[in-house]
């Protein structure tokens, strides 16, 4: 956990505006090594959030991580903003050999998906957005 907090503090050197930093730290909360709670409230700027996650991915890759897992807690806001679109997922990782994984949970169960399978990721994001809307 100490390494997670250390790496996250170094990820804060992103080019994202400083005024948005506290809001971003509430959206991406470390819960375990290489595991974050991803909670984007309605109206969150997906572009800024994606840039912040890219900085986290770069930092964790530098420390040797092969993947990062995000537990999605507010799928609807992310889905509306286009967070799970293939182009956005590719932009967050770029050329880094790191995999972003997502855990979607609902009363129906939990699904684990990654940005390696962009079609599957997009499908599960849409599916759980409908489940959560009920």
Secondary-structure map:
Elements: H1 2-11, H2 21-27, E1 28-32, E2 35-38, H3 46-62, E3 67-72, H4 75-81, H5 86-93, E4 99-106, E5 109-114, H6 118-133
Parallel strand pairs: 2-3, 3-4
Antiparallel strand pairs: 1-2, 4-5
Quickly describe the structure.
With 134 residues, this protein is of the alpha/beta class. 49% of the residues lie in helices and 22% in strands.
General description of the model:
It is a single chain. Strand 1 and strand 2 form a beta hairpin. The protein contains six helices and five strands. It has 134 residues and is of the alpha/beta class. The longest helix has 17 residues. About 6% of the residues have low confidence. It starts with a helix and ends with a helix. Strands 1-2-3-4-5 form a five-stranded mixed beta sheet.
Key features?
single chain; 134 residues; alpha/beta; 5-stranded mixed sheet; 5 strands; 49% helix; 22% strand
The dominant shape is globular
The strand order across the widest sheet is 1-2-3-4-5
The main sheet comes to: 5 strands, mixed
N- to C-terminal distance: 36 Å
- C-alpha Rg (nearest Å): 14 Å
Supply the helix-strand structural class.
alpha/beta
The overall pLDDT, averaged over residues, is 76
Helix content: 40-55%
* H/E topology pattern: HHEEHEHHEEH
């Amino acid at each position: 956990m100490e390494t997670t907090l250390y790496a996250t503090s170094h990820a804060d050197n992103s080019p994202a505006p400083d005024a948005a930093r506290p809001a971003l730290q509430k959206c991406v909360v470390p819960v375990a090594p290489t595991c974050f709670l991803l909670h984007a409230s309605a109206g969150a700027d997906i572009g800024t959030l994606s840039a912040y996650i890219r900085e986290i991915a770069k930092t964790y890759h530098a420390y040797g991580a092969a993947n990062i897992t995000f537990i999605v807690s507010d799928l609807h806001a992310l889905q509306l903003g286009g967070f799970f679109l293939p182009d956005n997922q590719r932009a967050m990782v770029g050329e880094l050999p790191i995999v972003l994984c997502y855990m979607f949970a609902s009363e129906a169960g939990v699904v684990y998906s990654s940005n390696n399978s962009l079609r599957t990721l997009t499908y599960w994001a849409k599916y759980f957005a409908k489940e959560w809307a009920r």
